[in-house]
Amino acid sequence: MFNALLALLTAFLVFGTGICAFSQDLTPKAILVRADEARGNLEGVKWELQIISVESGRKQDRELEVKSRGTEFFAILKAPPKVRGQILLNLDRNMWFASPSIRKPVPVSPRQKLVGGASYGDIASTNYAEDYDAAPLDDELVNGERCYVFDLKANKKDVTYDRIKYWVSKERLVGVQAEYFTVSGKKFKSAIFEYEHEIIVNEHRRPFVSKIIIQDSLLEGNITTMIFSEPVLGKVPDSDFDLNLLLMRTI
Questions:
Q1: Which of 121, 158, 201, 245 could in theory staple to 110 by disulfide, Cβ–Cβ 3.0 to 4.6 A?
Q2: Mean of the per-residue pLDDT values of the chain
Q3: What is the pLDDT of residue 101?
Q4: What pLDDT score was predicted for residue 14?
Q5: Is residue 7 very low, low, confident or very high in pLDDT (cuts 50, 70, 90)?
Q6: What is the pLDDT of residue 102?
Q7: How far is it, in rounded angstroms, from Cα 89 to Cα 96?
Q8: Which among 79, 91, 158 has a CA at the least distance from the CA of 115?
Q9: What is the CA radius of gyration of the chain?
Q10: pLDDT at residue 26 is higher than 70
Q11: Average pLDDT score over residue span 6-20
Q12: Residue 137 half-sphere exposure, CB side, CA atoms within 13 Å?
């Protein structure tokens, strides 16, 4: 009788805890893959993005339409009028900028600032699973939620950040908080992530990013808020990622 009860209890602990039990078996890379997917690293997804920035008391807005395919993305600025029609294309680990005011696309760095605390590399999917080496740290609680904590160090040169401290929810497998550092180890900004949207992947509901709040580490009043619309899953046309056609879109 005792053995039967022990077996029943063991089965409950292994299978009855759902996502938490599953999460404990994941490697750091697998955890980061899931977190990347919740921020747009999928095979075809579209959304609208509003960026509201306050720097030294000055407010700036940007509105973009973003199409993402894995780690590649196509983004066109919709507002304000002075930037309308500008395009960013991330293709084969290279980023390009096109505008009605220039003759041909020019290469840009994902570290280049778009507005406020948001860099070009922040506006679409992340690829932390491939672009960074992850060193696990002790678990921590963030707003009462148990999280994996990783020290991420860039293993490629063309990434947005040199080093990131990243908190990933153990239950939801999404990034909930991050701190960003220079190569010398100086923290220059932090971010909080919210996930009020949902997507369906392989018939399973998953959370999807709805807001990112970026705080400047040196100037407390400098805050950038990125607001994501409901995502739409679906194939993104190959033509959106054709560099030869990029300039024609700005005419």
A1: 121
A2: 88
A3: 86
A4: 35
A5: very low
A6: 87
A7: 5
A8: 79
A9: 20
A10: yes
A11: 37
A12: 13
Once rounded to an integer, what is the mean pLDDT over residues 146-150? Answer: 98
Amino acid at site 206: R
Peptide bond into 237 cis (omega under 30): no
Round to whole Å and give the CA distance between 57 and 65.
27
